[in-house]
Fold these 4 entries.
Entry 1:
Amino acid sequence: MIRSEEVYKIGRLGKPHGVKGEISFMFSDDVFDRVDADYLVLLVDGILVPFFIEEYRFRSNETALMKFCDIDSQDAARELTGCDVYFPRQLSDADEEGVSWAEMVGYQLVDGRTGRAAGTIASVDDSTLNMLFELTDGKLIPASEELITDVDTDKRQITIDLPEGILDL
């Protein structure tokens, strides 16, 4: 059984495309292409399920048409519409220098000045000019690369020099 801490969200499936089982895939991280992955993990009825990739083609920098093995009709593809898509952390090409923003979800955020745990990253908000970490308790923390001092992929921990008093807001 695949556990949620073993994967990270990279996108969501949209509508079927054509009649042969292709489906649109809106992604925030193209790691599946960079590492030539054999499968992606879909959240189907609350269960993380691996789906093997037959083929895909890019439509834009954020959208691909995905064809999974054994999904051979428009109706079968329609059943996957709206599923969140995850990528296995063990297959990621990330290292301390190259962790994607999407992969940081689930990491522990530590204040570099005090050594105090600030919380766990629930999501990364990149909808504004200033990127933000949203913690599980709802706090918003600036996610500026200039503030991040260390990324430990083994411990799944990010050390960040937070502006004084920001955790008290």
Note: The chain has a mean pLDDT of 89.
Entry 2:
Amino acid sequence: MNKFLVILISLFSILLHAQEEVVQSVYFDTGKFHLDDKQATAVIDFIKNTDSTRIESIQIFGYTDDVGKEAYNYKLSTNRATEIKNRLIDSGIKNKIIVTIEGKGRILIDDDVVENLPEKRSKNRRVDLVLNLKALPKIEIPGFYSTIQKNHIVGDHIYLENLLFERGSSKLTFQAKTQLDKIAKLLLKYRKLEFEIQGHVCCTPPYQKEAIDRETRKRNLSSNRAESVYKYLVFKKIAKTRMTFKGYGNSVPLGKGSEYDRRVELVITKI
């Protein structure tokens, strides 16, 4: 049986390097955007229970279910996001740290979803309140390194800090390509290494093991991110025969916090 060398490539928010996101979802009845007192209290408590010294910025994203016309749903999702913003400001949150208030319209449901359709739609009538937190100390796990070394043992982890994806996106940014250029050079140097590219996500609800890719509108974000890395390494002349790719959703957390689970791993399958 082959042992594995894991090369970790962080997938952090594009807004701030090594940033952690904490997400609270607020759900609404059909066609509604006003909060009741219980919901408003829960939103404010969510902020108050977070270490205020770590809050860098706040983003607010509104959504609707897939019923109704697109223009109506965009307006409704915007009203839901604005309602959350107003409640935060009324509670004393400074407006300048709220960097995004955006209505994203309806969330489409996969064609093969037929069971519990009302429940699934109810989970899409929501606002996601996203707290962007200042970075925690760098991960410290035995066997982890910041780059590929000359003499590794099987099982070593290479942890890279500058591979960035936009939130909900699988498109490689300029910074990500720069990081992969460095990895490609080392992979060309150590040509015996074969590996699987594994994509991961964080911060999805417990009942969802995978996140939605905003470009495809399908729940395959971790797989698409892994494939993006695969295609770029092929472009950089890494042989296809050395690589495979697969998405693992949120099923393999590191147990070190969500900021370390937005990642792609190169898992060595042969040395």
Note: Residues 124 and 212 are 12 Å apart (CA to CA).
Entry 3:
Amino acid sequence: MTGSERILQIENLTKIYGKGESRTEALKGITFDVLKGEFLGIMGASGSGKTTLLNCIATMHRPTGGNIILNGEDISGFGGSALADYRGRKIGYLFQEFELLDNLTAEENIMLPLSLHGVTVKEAESDIRAISALLDISEVLDKFPSQMSGGQKQRVAAARALISNPDIVLADEPTGALDSKNSKILMDKLADVNRRQQKTIMMVTHDANAASYCSRILFIQDGCLFHELRRSMQTESVSAFYERIVSVMAQLGGGSANVL
């Protein structure tokens, strides 16, 4: 991480679905910061609010209250071209199920966010080659999704999320559709991107193995922050951090909100 510069501020964020007896508080006033260059994990049980949180930041859902501030700008005030620019350039989104277009090659899928903003393949060629080499997908650039393995598809999806050099990458259960081998490959690559490019990544996951690559983890329970873990990047191994993550996961349903 580069010092303590805040890139994202979540302030008293609430999200309510429905009314009356069907009213559900998915987020109950969550507040936290994300630092520039941080690899932040968000964990919690199904229905805890973690994906709702990610989707509010991605502007897929509109929060009921609170503020989402990226690089000093409150995104709640965005509309029109400002909102399109935010979605296309300021954030990258990595989906659990890849969400690649079947009739486009890997290269064309990676190019999609740039194409929507008028950037040509020729203009982006060097960036495509660089990110493809980093994610080890150079050999599939001319292939269609049906010709790729699940691991290759997800790394192509990761390249698409990164190609516009967004301020922050949002990843929703990125290992959820992968086997253990391909999950490790993907997480190694994302950690490498985070380390080499100081790219800020915010990842929702239920997978303790994937979460162990993070520098910090926030645990959400019933729409509230329940616990926080910080990894000592200089002295703590991935395996040691994994053990602490598993310990907190076992406590979900009770306990304090202390930082361990």
Note: The helical segments are 50-57, 80-90, 106-115, 121-134, 150-162, 180-197, 208-211, 238-251.
Entry 4:
Amino acid sequence: MSKDNIMIRKAERQDVPLLLDFIRGIAQYEKMENEVVASAEVLEREMFDEHRAEAVFAVVDGREVGFALYFYNFSTFIGHSGLYLEDLFVWPEERGKGYGKVLLLYLVKIAREHHCGRMEWTCLNWNQPSIDFYLSLGAVPMNEWTIYRLDADSLERLSK
């Protein structure tokens, strides 16, 4: 299959089970299956009622072969919103066919249409195939930055 027969479609409410399949797939690839606590109810509320994130699928011959989940943030330095790519995942048997690149370039187009000043994402340090892919597109690693996180338990503890 070539990139020529790929279609990109936006995720809809009825796609929540499929979104969960992709989320579990990327979690398995990243060796983080035990961290997935997302449920259909939560995804439906957050994505389709609250509109906190969006997703698109790469579809080939009627089958979803990859997905990307993203949301918008804001940069005070540049004074524009940005597109944050939370997840980009192509099923292992479909890799190497250009589907991930088509998904990423589709999001670049969305970012430009929404006048985003930049597009960002994170990548695990051991994921060399993805790192090589991102570098080939001209993406620049932000090595001088460290990501900090407060998990749900920390948020609860600190809010008391």
Note: The beta strands are 6-10, 54-60, 63-75, 80-90, 118-121.
